[in-house]
Structures are given as structure tokens and as C-alpha cells.
Write a structure and sequence with these properties.
Shape: globular
CATH superfamily: Zinc/RING finger domain, C3HC4 (zinc finger)
Strand content: 5-15%
Distance between the termini: 31 Å
Number of domains: 1
Helix content: 10-25%
Strand order of the largest sheet: 2-1-3-4-5
Length: 117
């Protein structure tokens, strides 16, 4: 296993969706989890890019995918991708019935035109 600094394996995720998008009634493409504090934010392809904003605001350096079947980590300062790392507190992904993009009912029909490539 790879040692990655900036990870607290005991902290559960902040919820099942992007905290800021949920608060604002927005939507996301994919979800990312702060490996230090558990904050769930939307990915850089999402319109609001809350996971990167969380890193810039807090300095928490590492995120992990919060998508089912994905266990990779990303270090913002190193711009480094890790295919594996330590197991984080459960749950390790959003609910299986939650679509991507999501959440259901808030994704606009033209969502493909609104994501960042």
C-alpha cells in the first residue's frame, strides 16, 4: 500500500452528495471525498467544482473518488494520482441508486453542455 499524507481513515463522509450543491439545489457530474475531513464535493468536470474549491479553502491535500467501484486518490499539491490507498471510514461511495450525474431530479436535460471537459 502507498503511504499518502493528508488522510484520516477514521473520518466518515459528510453525506451522500456534494455538500454545497445540495445546499444550493445544484447538481454534479461525479463526487469526490476529502480524505482528511470527509467533505463530499463535486469533481472538476461538474459546473461548480466544489472538491477543488474545498482544497483551496482548507489546504486539505488529498481526495478520493466517491463513485462506486472507484478507489483512487488524487493529491492536489503533488498533482499525483494513486490507484490505491488506505480504506476510509464507511461508506466508501455514494448510494448505488444515486445516479451520476446526480442527484435525480436536479440534473438539467442539457447537462452534457454544462460540464467541464
Amino acid at each position: 500500500m502507498t503511504e499518502i499524507s493528508g488522510i484520516d481513515v477514521s473520518v466518515p463522509p459528510s453525506g451522500t452528495g456534494c455538500a454545497e450543491c445540495d445546499e444550493a439545489g445544484g447538481w454534479w457530474f461525479h463526487l469526490r471525498r476529502c480524505a482528511q475531513c470527509g467533505h463530499i464535493g463535486c469533481c472538476d468536470s461538474s459546473p461548480a467544482q466544489h472538491a477543488s474549491a474545498h482544497w483551496r479553502e482548507t489546504g486539505h491535500p488529498v481526495i478520493r473518488s466517491f463513485e462506486p467501484g472507484e478507489t483512487w486518490f488524487w493529491s492536489f499539491p503533488e498533482e499525483g494520482f494513486y490507484e490505491e490507498g488506505p480504506a476510509l471510514a464507511s461508506p466508501e461511495h455514494h448510494p448505488l441508486d444515486q445516479p451520476a450525474p446526480g442527484p435525480a431530479g436536479r440534473v438539467p436535460p442539457d447537462w452534457r453542455a454544462k460540464i467541464h471537459g
